[in-house]
TrEMBL record:
Protein name per its UniProtKB record: DUF2238 domain-containing protein
UniProt KW Transmembrane keyword: yes
UniProt-listed Pfam families: DUF2238 (PF09997)
InterPro entries: YjdF-like
Alphabetically ordered keywords of this record: Membrane, Transmembrane, Transmembrane helix
Native species: Pelagibius litoralis
Length: 237
């Protein structure tokens, strides 16, 4: 296990930076962070627009329960444990795509029907797309949490982030099943969005896993390139 001495940031590194990544210092300065303000405003406006007259209000509410908890958690922990602007951007994009699915219900999302016509699929795969993007877009923020919170780097941090993505994906599928068990048949079908596929949960988890593998592979690659370029850079006098 290799320590990663990047958290908390040193006093000399606490200057304002518009775009930050997990590799550098971050500050809890929302009032001065125009990029984070823009990301937050864009997501809030999209969410509010999609909260108006959803296709199925009850399903919309169920789909947003975890969003309320997660966004609240990010807000409460921001000052004590801020993340990079790249992580917040990825999370906002993913949550925005989820908001679209919650508005239309996942099985009726227009983008999914467009894919059906384009690729000649037999079902609306928007839910599968979002499960894949969960692994692809949420692995980086989770990796950053592991890296900053545990001071671990290298393969330990990648492995923990990968395991957390798989755990969250599996737990979500179990929560879906549990909620569906207490709903009426129509409400359960709208919430689950299986569209007749008995292996829907397994396929969703596999897609989230694939997204995580791609994301973490890109992180490994960029970290390796960064280390190589750092070694190749001539010393400054």
């Amino acid at each position: 296990m290799v320590p990663s001495p990047i958290w908390p940031p040193k006093a000399a590194d606490r200057g304002y930076r518009l775009f930050t990544t997990a590799a550098g210092p971050v500050t809890a300065d929302f009032a001065g962070n125009r990029l984070l303000q823009g990301i937050t405003l864009a997501y809030v406006l999209l969410w509010l627009a999609l909260a108006i007259a959803p296709v199925n209000r009850f399903d919309w509410f169920l789909e947003n329960l975890l969003v309320f908890f997660f966004v609240g958690l990010l807000a409460v922990t921001y000052r004590a444990f801020p993340l990079s602007s790249l992580s917040y951007l990825l999370l906002a994009v993913f949550l925005g795509l989820h908001a679209v699915g919650a508005h239309y219900t996942y099985s009726k999302t227009p983008f999914g029907w467009w894919l059906v016509e384009l690729l000649e699929w037999e079902r609306n795969h928007y839910d599968r797309v979002v499960h894949f993007l969960f692994g692809l877009m949420c692995s980086y923020p989770l990796w950053e949490v592991v890296r900053r919170g545990t001071r671990l780097a290298g393969w330990c941090s990648y492995g923990i982030a990968f395991a957390v993505v798989l755990a969250f994906s599996g737990i979500y599928e179990m929560l879906e099943w549990g909620v569906a068990m207490i709903l009426s048949p129509d409400a359960a079908m709208a919430f689950l969005g299986t569209q007749g596929d008995v292996f829907d949960a397994q396929k969703d988890t596999v897609l989230a896993t694939g997204g995580a593998v791609i994301a973490l592979s890109l992180i490994v690659l960029t970290e390796g390139v960064g280390r190589a370029s750092g070694k190749a850079r001539p010393p400054t006098s």
